[in-house]
Amino acid sequence: MPNDLVSPSLEQPRPPFGEQHQRAPGLESALDPRPRYRADRYRAARKLEGKAALITGGDSGIGRAVALLYAREGANVAICYLPIEQSDAKETRTAVEAAGTKCLLIPGDLSHVGACDDAVERTVEAFGRLDILVANAAHQRRKKSLADVSDEEFDTTFKTNMYSYFWLARAALRHMQRGSAIIATSSETGIMGSKELPDYSATKGAINAFTKTLALELIDRGIRVNGVAPGPVWTPLNPSDAGLSPDKVAKFGEDNPMGRPAQPEELAPTYVFLASEADSSYITGTVIQVMGGETTGG
Ligand code: NAD
Ligand code: MG
Prior knowledge:
Helices cover 35% and strands 12% of the residues. It is an alpha/beta fold. The protein has one domain (47-230, 264-290): NAD(P)-binding Rossmann-like Domain (Rossmann fold, 3-Layer(aba) Sandwich), CATH 3.40.50.720. Strands 3-2-1-4-5-6-7 form a 7-stranded parallel β-sheet, with helices on both faces. Helix 1 (61-72) links the parallel strand 1 and strand 2 (76-81). The longest helix is centred in the middle third of the chain and has 22 residues, at 151-172.
């Protein structure tokens, strides 16, 4: 079989990885192995030509892989991230520009409404339009029990993961035209729950319900709203989770039916699919599971 037809699941990195840990939000450049985001075997087809996308958490992980595929499909992209992640964001910009489109960097803390409004306005100013919103930024920190979830932590998780989705969607809808798409990153934890992630899982369940509801409201405007629920993915999120020890990071994804985490490049095509009218014009209000064979969620 030609090399580029070999199943990726046979080739992607498998645990054990090296023991490692970072302080949140972590940097992709410090991960070993480096996450795969280039999707070399993906064949672009100019599906998003001339469009403009805003991707939160686009500096690293899933968001970076989505930014690059959107660029390869012809879209200009704006990415939001925390200021401390500037070096990762620059690497995303280099990859996007090499694919031939523009990349606007918007550092800021999206757990505040002003930063969300600002991100949307700056994107529209730069590109003259906004066609795709990918609400993908998240805060995640494992706790041993509910007693360890402070009010402050609960607020941070909800403000970062759920409120920002609401604030960004509300602002984006001031500009979006027919044919636009909103895509939220959910999680398998939002479908099945997760023992050490009560606040995080609750935000993901809320994201799913919000996605379905907004989808119904926007059908008449010709704007589709969908979610993606990943299983474990090799990104800075878990290696920088203060509740996950370095030895657990080394085994990350081992429990998944495929025995490994996904690489970001295995998530990104689903985000192209959901953004592209050519692919998914009859799909709205759905949450697509990209979970490596985990079927418990239905
Ligand atoms: P990641 O760390 O690369 O991306 C998360 C990004 O969120 C960070 O890069 C950061 O820029 C951004 N962020 C966090 N707090 C922010 C804030 N206050 N303001 C602005 N930006 C902020 O990790 P990832 O795994 O690619 O995460 C992307 C999405 O995927 C998240 O929604 C996450 O919940 C979801 N997800 C990840 C996994 C996994 O195993 N990695 C599994 C299921 C779902
Ligand atoms: Mg990051």
